[in-house]
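Bumping my old thread because nobody answered last time. Still need a sequence for this structure:
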């Protein structure tokens, strides 16, 4: 258990669970997403172990990687799911989760979606005062719900992924607590949980605790609570030496504070967490093939058969993803910009030392498990890659490569 904890990632893995990535690329072609299922379950277990002193429910943030086979794997490891769309709720149900294991955390969706989710039997996370009012008018105290609080904390790796600060659209401002309480009373709402999610790439146990503390203080105003949901956002390492959330430390500190709170509250509640990136980021590898090596007077570009259509994070967040040359591990190193084939500025990684890249070489882009495939698009009318899960020492195709028929399926070609 927790084999990977405190262990630097193998820098340039050539094998996953004993299977060579080269053979996987050969068998399934490129571009290809490959996931190491063992790493995912190890991450689930690391959180379970760190929080073993409290009744913990892990609600995996489906939006990080939503393939049904991955969801099944996570279910088998003992977690539930957090869904941010009705479609993700449905994927969770398809993966075999009970409705009671699914949390629906919408962000400004129409009330028809809320009603559908209630009909499906999942927990609703109310994210605005108008939604609280409407929910109360329709369901009163017949359907319990959770409230998403915006604690006004600047947390997370950068402004684009920080969602719990004052100017953020998410949740209901903690300063509006009087209004929240008024609506709860007036509409006779049964509030079963309080929720914060402040952002992604949170390193510190202290920052995480600050969000939790806001909920602990607020909780006394809500007598029917069954759980406190502290959200996700644990940081993983993107490169050698990168700091990552010390989950054991967070677990110990938050568990202790939580148990002290429960004592004061007078009831043992459940602690919910919603890790996304932490569970799946390091499990994923995007394998791409080098189409061209282009030297300019100043830069050498390695152009590959993928791009921001398959992995948006470098262009969207300036995210750093490690890249290495799988096909020529022992070549002399040179400096490259690894670029995609999309007709936009499409830089996957710049200024990287790689062993010599030749046409046809397979490059591996690391940390591609979270917000990789799930953010992929068909921009430039490109097809989305296949996905392979390595589980119990075998590669399993869990999504076929798209075809031109997939691209045109819903188009209606008119006579013109
Ligand atoms: C995105 C999201 C998460 C997961 O964030 P990570 O940084 O991937 O851990 C958790 N909860 C909610 C509500 C989210 O929107």
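Sorry it took so long. Here it is:
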């Amino acid at each position: 258990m927790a084999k990977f904890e405190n262990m630097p990632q193998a820098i340039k893995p050539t094998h996953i669970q004993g299977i060579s990535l080269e053979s996987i690329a050969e068998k399934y072609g490129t571009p290809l997403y490959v996931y190491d299922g063992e790493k995912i379950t190890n991450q689930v277990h690391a959180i379970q172990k760190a929080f073993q002193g409290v009744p913990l429910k892990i609600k995996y943030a489906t939006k990080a990687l939503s393939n049904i086979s991955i969801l099944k794997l996570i279910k088998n490891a003992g977690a539930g799911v957090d869904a941010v769309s009705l479609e993700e709720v449905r994927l969770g149900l398809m993966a075999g989760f009970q409705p009671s294991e699914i949390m629906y955390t919408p962000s400004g969706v129409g009330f028809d979606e809320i009603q559908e989710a209630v009909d499906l039997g999942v927990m609703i996370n109310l994210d605005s005062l108008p939604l609280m009012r409407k929910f109360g008018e329709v369901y009163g105290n017949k359907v319990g719900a959770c409230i998403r609080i915006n604690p006004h904390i600047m947390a997370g790796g950068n402004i684009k992924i920080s969602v719990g600060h004052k100017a953020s659209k998410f949740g209901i401002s903690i300063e509006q607590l009087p209004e929240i309480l008024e609506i709860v009373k007036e509409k006779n709402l049964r509030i079963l949980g309080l929720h914060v999610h402040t952002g992604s790439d949170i390193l510190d146990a202290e920052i995480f605790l600050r969000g939790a503390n806001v909920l602990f203080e607020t909780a006394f105003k809500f007598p029917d609570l069954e759980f406190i949901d502290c959200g996700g956002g644990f940081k993983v390492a993107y490169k050698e030496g990168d700091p990552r959330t010390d989950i054991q430390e967070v677990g110990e500190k938050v568990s202790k504070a939580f148990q002290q709170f429960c004592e004061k509250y007078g009831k043992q509640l459940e602690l919910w967490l919603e890790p996304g990136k932490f569970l799946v980021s390091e499990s994923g590898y995007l394998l791409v093939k080098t189409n061209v090596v282009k030297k300019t007077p100043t830069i050498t570009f390695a152009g590959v058969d993928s791009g921001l259509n398959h992995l948006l994070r470098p262009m969207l967040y300036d995210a750093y993803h490690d890249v290495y040359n799988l096909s020529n591990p022992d070549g002399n190193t040179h400096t490259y910009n690894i670029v995609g084939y999309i007709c936009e500025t499409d830089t996957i990684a710049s200024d990287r030392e790689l062993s010599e890249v030749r046409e046809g070489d397979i490059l591996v882009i690391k940390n591609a498990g979270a917000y990789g495939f799930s953010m992929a698009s068909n921009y430039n009318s490109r097809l989305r890659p296949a996905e392979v899960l390595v589980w119990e020492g075998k590669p399993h195709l869990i999504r076929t490569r798209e075809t031109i028929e997939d691209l045109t399926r819903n188009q209606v070609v008119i006579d013109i």
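Confidence is low (pLDDT under 50) at residues 1-9. Let me know if any region looks off to you.
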